[in-house]
Fold this protein.
Amino acid sequence: MYDSIVKNGNLYLGNGKIKMDVDIAVKDGKIAKVGSGLDEKQVGASYDAQRKLVVPGFMDTHMHIDKAFTMQNDATVSLIEACANSDRLTDSYYGWSDAQIYEEILAHAGKVVEMCIVHGTTLLKTNVLFNREWGTLVLKAMNELKVKYAEYITILSCVSFPDEFREELLRAASRGEVDVIGGYPHLCPDYRAVTDDCFALAERFQLPVDLHCDESDVTNLDCFRYIIECTKKYGMQGKVTCGHVTGSNATDISEEMLAEILKEAAEVKMNVTSLTSCNMYLMNMTRRGPARVRQMVEAGLNVSVASDNIRDTFRPFGNCNLLEEALLTARVHRFGTTRWLREVMDMITYHPAKNALAENYGLEEGSYADFSIIDAPTPEEAVLSRASSQYVFRRGRLVAQDGELIREYLH
């Protein structure tokens, strides 16, 4: 009847709900049945979860995998310095052939992808960097990785359109090689013009939008507010994401002002991605922290937590482990209750699934069989202990076990 069965699992259904000690049956890459005592006869494979937690695939919806593992000796103690160091990264590739650069990007980014998979991530969204040495080779590399790891993970390319490469990128978008319209309006002299262009491109190619926004320590959320306005204007409710928004945590921002802006954001179903670990690194004790996650959740925004940078000029840390990111978020925001620890679990599962517009996501019958068996009995224990993903399934196939990738499905 079924391709495989997972027995005796504690299923996390999101929004704090858990179904204890039940079975999952898989057929043709989807969850065919959820219940107790499912028949194991004539089943291709059977796994005993031993009353441990089963969670749908983690989703890391804000990464920069192309420049991962490119740490330099230049000190980085602020966002401005990190940007400058990142610009100098291109100098290290001077004189390299296109083939050498391409293989280097593939090696770094591929390492990140495999680290994500063994930690239970089944979707990642990565921002794509274009510079004078890399050109558009980086987008070609992302497309190759999509194909190579297609049986393991979904990779979404979030692409900005710098003038130097705009025509080539427009052609790539026409070929379906761009998944999300990205951009950095808050870093530009005219954030309105950049935001307008991003939404016009999104309308042209019928794609969602994901923008770096108000990553600063000043009491200014004008860019965030303008993105809210454009979301309403273009009818893109639920299809727009703002990353960082650390201006919401400026030391002198008024609670009344913040509440008003968050109410506006909730009305357009805004997604926000908090990059807790990276923004905590790019600060000192007198600067801002990460986004105001608690207030955003309470206002009704869809909030996710993601890895951001992995061992590069912006952050020398990172293990592509979303439970690690969730635990840091819980510590920083004092999410010490069962309710809030389960909310943090939602921030790496069900919330980013909405952010990524993922279809058939979850542990209900009819959902894609993308899930992990975690070495903990409950969501809160999984977060607190950063529990390992013992088994990782993608479309019903076992793709990783005990931290090791099963390589037979590589293209």
User: Anything to note?
Assistant: Residues 9 and 375 are 11 Å apart (CA to CA). The first helix runs from residue 79 to 89.
